[in-house]
């Protein structure tokens, strides 16, 4: 890749995610010191029990969808992503778990109103060009009383953490493993642009969500938010 893609150019974004799909899990694990799975699992533990229909948006290589399938074995799990290469890996990883994988855009979810008890979006919202539109779409497909879980990068108070990990280590690891540092430069830019958990909470309120709870992980470098459709 020659330049950092513009989020509004959904085709370039899709190409970038296709390109990093093969090494996505490995680089993610290295970047988070292998803590990303335990963090995701902790974040999921905040959700209600007794769920029937769950949607994982921007599922990528399917970690969250697979964790949900293990945690809620009788639930119908649907997972959506616009990158066919990410989905290919997710399907291989899902193996015997019954997950319905769909290729589609988070900004135009191919589901009827009031379909899901829970929607999850992990490290996905940051990549969407219009956060309000994305949250509106999630609100639409959630049932009344349904919950949204957002996991994404936070804003650590410690000023040395991100410059060290994101600015230096991530492009270095990305270039060595993936042979291209542009997607990892994109990651840095996307973190800088991404609103703080407090700002995301305000967006959620604007879109009609209530009962908003925020949890920080890794000194605030990762944050999870659970909100309800009242
Ligand atoms: C950083 S990955 C996160 C993957 C996974 N959820 C996780 O927690 O590791 C972001 C994913 O969002 C997908 N994505 C980005 N924009 C999208 C869009 N507009 N519609 C659907 N998927 C999108 C990408 O293809 C990619 O798989």
Model description:
It is a single chain. The protein is of the alpha/beta class. It has one domain: Vaccinia Virus protein VP39 (Rossmann fold), CATH 3.40.50.150. It is built from nine helices and seven strands, in the order H-H-H-E-H-E-H-E-E-H-E-H-H-H-E-E. It has helices spanning 10-20, 24-31, 36-44, 63-71, 84-94, 131-141, 161-178, 182-193, 197-206, and strands at 53-57, 76-81, 99-103, 116-122, 142-153, 210-217, 222-228. It has a seven-stranded mixed β-sheet, with helices on both faces. Strand 4, helix 6 and strand 5 form a beta-alpha-beta unit. Helix 3 (36-44) crosses helix 4. The radius of gyration is 17 Å and the shape is globular. It starts with 9 loop residues before the first helix and ends with a strand. The relative contact order is 0.16. The model has no long low-confidence stretch (mean pLDDT 91). The structure holds S-adenosylmethionine. The site of S-adenosylmethionine has 20 residues, from helix 1 and helix 4.
Question: Tags for this entry?
Answer:
230 residues; 9 helices; Rossmann fold; 7-stranded mixed β-sheet; alpha/beta; globular; binds S-adenosylmethionine; single chain
Compact summary:
This protein is α/β, with parallel strands linked by helices. It has one domain: Vaccinia Virus protein VP39 (Rossmann fold).
């Amino acid at each position: 890749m020659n330049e950092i893609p513009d989020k509004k150019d959904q085709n370039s974004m899709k190409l970038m995610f296709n390109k990093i799909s093969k090494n996505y899990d490995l680089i993610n694990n290295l970047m988070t010191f292998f803590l990303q799975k335990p963090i995701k699992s902790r974040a999921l533990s905040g959700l209600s029990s007794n769920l029937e229909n769950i949607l994982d948006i921007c599922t990528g290589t399917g970690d969250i969808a697979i964790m949900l399938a293990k945690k809620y074995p009788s639930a119908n799990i649907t997972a959506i992503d616009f990158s066919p290469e990410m989905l290919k890996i997710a399907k291989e990883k899902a193996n015997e778990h019954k997950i319905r994988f769909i290729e589609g855009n988070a900004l135009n979810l191919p589901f009827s109103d009031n379909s899901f008890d829970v929607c999850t979006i992990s490290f996905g919202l940051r990549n969407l060009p219009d956060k309000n539109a994305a949250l509106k779409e999630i609100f639409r497909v959630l049932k009344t009383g349904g919950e949204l879980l957002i996991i994404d990068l936070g804003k650590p108070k410690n000023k040395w953490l991100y410059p060290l990990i994101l600015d230096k280590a991530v492009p270095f690891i990305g270039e060595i493993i993936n042979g291209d540092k542009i997607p990892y430069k994109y990651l840095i830019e996307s973190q800088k642009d991404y609103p703080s958990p407090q700002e995301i909470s305000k967006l959620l309120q604007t879109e009609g969500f209530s009962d908003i709870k925020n949890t920080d992980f890794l000194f605030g470098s990762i944050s999870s938010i659970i909100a309800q459709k009242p």
